[in-house]
Design goal:
706 residues; alpha+beta; Glutathione S-transferase Yfyf (Class Pi), Chain A, domain 2; five-stranded mixed beta sheet; two-stranded antiparallel sheet; 28 helices; 58% helix
Length: 706
């Protein structure tokens, strides 16, 4: 056989293989549930059909479609207008946004090795995709032309806001930079996307890896029965016989620290918990922190900002680092003396018990619970039987119904991504469809830690059609056991109300443009709708509406509610200082100027020494597992929770002045805050609701810091 004959046969085989691959790829596209009509109730994602292998082809196709629409906008021959440029941009990329939302939510709520591999592959591609859009010269010229001629377009307030936000996104995304600097920005964005992903993965993996295995029943002394039973079930699942396993997931670690009599085990639990991702192993995050901080300041400098904090805060209510630091210092000066007094009281209790050791971080929660019981005759375990998950959901629905008339109908015959998930149709007061709510309340190894709200689809109006939102809330509460339902601590109960407030912000959104929908507001305003709900959760009238003992059905006794109320200011020095320490640490990292050789542990210690943090307390989130700022969206923004705390305490006083469920006040909050998304300046929206700017007094009174 001649060389030419061999070459011909090889070429023919290659051709056939290519054609088979094309045919296979085309068939896969046709069958890919992410790229076709869902044909599901309320058009929710078809979770029952989605497989991991569907995502990469879907991402590639969606990015291609998005680029096609971007190219059409950028190459438009007609003069740029709001509709053909700004509105068109908002409507572009809808498919990519939906696929990204489904993927990111699954990767957070129910991940696996395949999804994590896809995340590592697609994250830099998505970063490059969006960077390319921001750096598209022809596109920016059209956006800039509309912005410079905005007065001739007769725009309504929402359109004005979208135009302003779009223009700023391009400028802040590097559109005005010279080509050489734009290339550097591309590299930085890609590196940051991978580093922040790795940071979060390390936290999840090291948290899941930890086990405190106990084989001596005496070491369980002090622990509540339900916690012991859960630990026994976890041990059984992991293949241990006659043992108990405690983990670093909050429903395990926090009650262990509060009730375990064995001080050595408390120390082991606490020290391993606060040293997560700081163990010089494959999950260590110290180098990730170094790189992230330096890349962020490099990016900020490239864009003309002194620091990353200056870059971030430009878009927030607190517009400068100085404003944030002054605010934090005012609260720190009020809270630290109270925390010191609390430490003194706990140390006195230790001495009174005949012990001579010094109060340490692993002792704080344990002796706080003892002191709480001594002062208020209140044991946190005494309240948990009244806050079963079912009761808490019922109570939340009751509050929201009394405020706004919303109704929640449970749907069983609908696609879900995990058996734990419950799905509800949300109806407005008049019975009209408002949206779909997914609830995923229990912890599991495939879910990242913490609690959060997100969306599978944001509310918008597209081609004249009102797009109803599909919202999800995730928590990490203890799973029900064979003997009892999931019983929540009082803190977990208020956490659920908190996340439900975020969900309402997404569900009640009533705007036109997706970019401004729901929770698309400045970071230090987004916590107002969530935190204000916590105020109802703590109110005695609300607690009596639903809190019933899960076994007897008995309504929570009035004297127990009185104890909860009386203890409301208890340990608030600790809670505030623990939180503020993390907020200060965040600002210290992100007000650095220029590249630094950062050693995160030393940097953190120096930061805490500068503000005088007492050794008995460690920051709520230490650097190596500070996911909010190194893998979430709260960099130079962790202060937002307490900034919004000023807003929520002041806003709730409006209800106390008019009535806990006053219809007029509730409607004003809905119309001026919940429905508006990011369509207006946050302070303007707040003043429209409250009639004045917020005051700090209600927050100080609420926390007993006045």
């Amino acid at each position: 056989m001649s060389i030419n004959q061999i070459s011909y046969k090889v070429r023919k085989i290659i051709y056939l293989l290519i054609m088979l691959n094309v045919t296979f790829s085309s068939a896969m596209m046709e069958e890919n549930p992410l790229l076709n009509q869902y044909n599901t109730p309320f058009n929710v994602p078809p979770f029952h059909r989605i497989k991991s292998e569907h995502f990469m082809p879907a991402f590639e196709k969606a990015m291609q479609k998005h680029n096609e629409k971007i190219n059409v906008i950028a190459a438009g021959r007609e003069a740029p207008t709001f509709d053909n440029t700004i509105a068109a941009l908002d409507h572009s990329g809808y498919l990519l946004s939906e696929i990204s939302s489904i993927f990111s939510n699954l990767n957070s709520s129910h991940t696996n090795e395949e999804l994590q591999k896809i995340a590592r592959e697609v994250t830099p591609k998505l970063s490059a995709h969006y960077t390319n859009i921001m750096l598209n010269t022809d596109l920016f010229e059209r956006v800039e032309a509309v912005y410079e001629q905005k007065d001739i377009f007769n725009l309504d307030p929402e359109q004005q806001k979208l135009l302003e936000k779009t223009y700023k996104q391009f400028v802040r995304g590097g559109a005005a930079l010279e080509p050489g600097k734009q290339e550097k920005l591309r590299e930085i964005n890609e590196q940051l996307s991978l580093l922040t992903l790795e940071f979060g993965n390390n936290i999840r993996d090291e948290t899941n890896k930890f086990e405190l295995v106990i084989d001596n029943r005496e070491d369980l002394s002090g622990l509540p029965d339900d916690l012991i039973n859960t630990a026994a079930e976890i041990a059984k699942e992991k293949g241990y016989e006659n043992k108990w396993v405690f983990t670093h997931h909050n429903p395990s670690v926090m009650p262990f620290l509060a009730y375990a009599d064995n001080r050595e085990l408390r120390e082991k639990m606490k020290t391993t918990y606060i040293n997560r991702c700081n163990n010089d192993n494959e999950y260590d995050n110290k180098d990730n922190i170094r790189q992230i901080v330096n890349l962020r300041v490099k990016k900020a400098n490239l864009l003309g900002y002194d620091t990353h904090a200056h870059y971030v805060l430009e878009e927030n209510m607190a517009s400068t680092p100085a404003m944030v630091n002054d605010f934090l210092k005012e609260l720190w000066d009020a809270a630290l003396p109270i925390a010191k007094q609390e430490a003194y009281d706990l140390q006195a209790m230790i001495y009174n018990e005949g012990n001579n050791f010094r109060l340490m971080p692993w002792d704080w929660r344990y002796y706080t619970e003892k002191l709480r019981k001594e002062r208020f005759d209140l044991d946190e375990e005494e309240t948990r039987p009244y806050f079963s998950m079912e009761n808490v959901i019922e109570g939340t629905f009751l509050v929201v119904n009394k405020l706004w008339g919303l109704q929640f109908l449970k749907i069983d015959d609908i696609p879900k991504y995990h058996e734990d998930v419950e799905v509800y149709q949300v109806l407005d007061k008049d019975g009209s469809h408002m949206g779909i709510l997914y609830m995923d309340n229990y912890n599991r190894p495939s879910k990242r830690g913490g609690a959060w709200m997100s969306s599978f689809r944001q509310q918008s109006v597209r081609d004249g059609e009102f797009i109803h939102p599909v919202i999800t809330i995730n928590c990490n509460f203890s799973r029900p056991t064979n003997d009892e339902p999931s019983l929540l601590t009082f803190d977990e109960y208020t956490t659920f109300f908190h996340e439900f407030g975020h969900a309402l912000h997404g569900l009640m959104s009533d705007v036109t443009y997706r970019t401004l929908s729901g929770t698309s507001v400045p970071r230090d305003f987004v916590e107002l709708p969530s935190q204000v709900m916590e105020n109802w959760a703590r109110h005695p009238e609300v607690i009596t509406m639903f809190a019933r003992h899960y076994r007897t059905g008995e309504t929570i006794p009035g004297e127990l509610i009185d104890k909860i109320t009386e203890a409301g200011h208890f340990n608030q020095g600790f809670a505030t200082v623990e939180y503020l320490a993390t907020a200060v640490l965040d600002m210290d990292y992100h007000t650095l100027k220029g590249k630094k050789d950062i050693h995160p542990v030393e940097f953190e210690n120096e930061s805490m020494n500068d503000i005088g943090l007492i050794p008995e307390i460690v920051p709520r989130w230490r650097s190596t597992y500070l996911s909010h700022i190194f893998s979430g969206g709260y960099s130079a923004g962790y202060y937002s929770y307490i900034w919004s705390g000023v807003l929520d305490a002041d806003a709730f006083e409006a209800f106390l002045e008019t009535g806990l469920f006053d219809e007029e006040t509730a409607q004003s909050f809905r119309k001026n805050i919940l429905e508006k998304g990011g369509t207006r300046d946050p302070m303007e929206m707040y003043v429209d609701f409250r009639g004045r700017e917020p005051e700090i007094g209600p927050l100080l009174r609420q926390r007993g810091l006045d």
